[in-house]
Design a protein that fits this description.
Mean pLDDT: 86
Number of strands: 0
Main location: membrane
CATH superfamily of the largest domain: MetI-like
Number of helices: 13
Distance between the termini: 35 Å
Shape: flat
Largest sheet: none
Number of domains: 2
Structural class: mainly alpha
GO cellular component, one term: plasma membrane
Keywords: Cell membrane, Membrane, Phosphate transport, Transmembrane, Transmembrane helix, Transport
Order of helices and strands: HHHHHHHHHHHHH
InterPro entries: MetI-like (IPR000515), MetI-like_sf (IPR035906), Phosphate_PstA (IPR005672), Phosphate_transprt_permease (IPR051408)
GO molecular function, one term: phosphate transmembrane transporter activity
CATH topology of the largest domain: MetI-like fold
Length: about 350
């Protein structure tokens, strides 16, 4: 029995082989870097313009892949390859600030990742040493309290808007949620500070005040995200539950929420990521301290953003040690956000409705 196999694509078969775009990309970068290296002969290696060489290499690749594709394939395929190169380049350009940020924070913050840094506070520390255990506890307690306050309010508001809300009241709630989404964070801090100054005394700072300020910022994010996710739940699921005689509140609890739980968890994590790095409202409300304080209802509390800001602005007798602590606290904050996102994914996967599969 004879098996017919199609020949591999070549430059003359009307279709470029799979290795051709990658070979052109490598050749373009090699030519560009070689030209820039020749022009920088006699200068220091630090003066080599790697950004300019990369840009020229990308532009050269776009020209080569378009011309060669137009000759070997077709004009339509050449335009397609050019657009693919443009989209990939735009993606890499958008990714560069994020990679640069993570790399800078990791390189500068890894120096203080030791046992002392995560087990000591800054009490009685003037120069080197000290740690952020008090700031970690403050960040966790303030953010957790804010989430406990804002998530139920935001979720129930989104359920009302999707399942029950009609008329002027629903439109008014939607309007105010949209307005709250865009308010500056310092306004939330000033609002909570003013309320507590009127109710208790001026100049007061407590952890619960910081949690309330963050809750003001979190609530509209939870509402908007959860509302959109609840709206995309198919109405057929609701109608099937109603046909079986299930009341509406139980349908929401057993059908609608489990169907959208993964997206809701993502919305909650977005709201936490939105506020966990806030500095201005926490400076006004939670204040800052050098000692450990785990009571959010009594005394000032240190948080990681405020700690990084304080170490940078007040470097004391040893500026290098203070900057190391600031970078390390920023890296710790990024890692906490990553861990929270992983936990949210696991929780969403655990509570998501089980579907039959192979």
């Amino acid at each position: 029995m004879t098996v017919l196999t199609s020949p591999a694509p070549s430059l003359t078969s009307g279709k470029l082989p799979k290795w051709a775009p990658w070979a052109l990309l490598l050749a373009s970068f090699a030519i560009s870097y070689a030209v820039f290296a020749v022009t920088s002969i006699g200068e220091d290696l630090v003066d080599f313009n790697i950004v300019g060489a990369s840009i020229v290499g990308i532009l050269l690749y776009m020209v080569l892949i378009t011309v060669i594709s137009a000759i070997a394939e077709s004009r339509r395929k050449a335009v397609d390859r050019l657009m693919t190169a443009l989209v990939a380049t735009a993606f890499l350009i958008a990714l560069m600030p994020l990679v640069s940020l993570l790399w800078t924070v990791a390189v500068n913050g890894i120096h203080r990742f030791d046992a002392e840094f995560f087990s000591f506070s800054m009490r009685n520390i003037v120069g080197e040493g000290g740690g952020i255990v008090h700031a970690i506890w403050g960040t966790v307690l303030v953010t957790l309290t804010a989430a406990v306050i804002s998530v139920p309010i935001g979720l129930m508001t989104s359920i009302y808007l999707v399942e029950y809300g009609r008329g002027k009241l629903a439109k008014g709630i939607t309007f105010f949620v949209d307005v709250m989404t865009g308010i500056p964070s310092i306004v939330a801090g000033l609002f909570i500070y003013a309320v507590f100054s009127l109710l208790i005394r001026p100049g007061i700072s407590m952890g619960i005040m910081g949690a309330l300020a963050l809750a003001v910022l979190m609530t509209p994010v939870v509402v908007r995200g959860s509302e959109e996710l609840l709206r995309i739940v198919p109405n057929e699921l609701r109608e099937a539950a109603y046909a079986l005689g299930v009341p509406k509140w139980l349908t929401i609890l057993k059908v609608v929420l489990p169907t959208s739980i993964a997206g809701i968890m993502t919305s909650v994590m977005l709201s936490i990521s939105r506020v966990i790095g806030e500095t201005a409202p926490l400076l006004l409300t939670a204040g800052f301290t050098l000692s450990m304080n785990t009571n959010i209802f009594n005394g000032q509390m240190m948080t990681l953003p405020v700690f990084a800001y304080n170490q940078y602005m007040n470097q004391g007798t040893n500026p290098e040690a203070a900057l190391d602590r600031a970078w390390a606290s920023a890296l710790t904050l990024i890692l906490i956000v990553m861990v929270l996102n992983l936990l949210a994914r696991l929780i969403a996967k655990w509570f998501a409705p089980k579907t039959s599969g192979r």
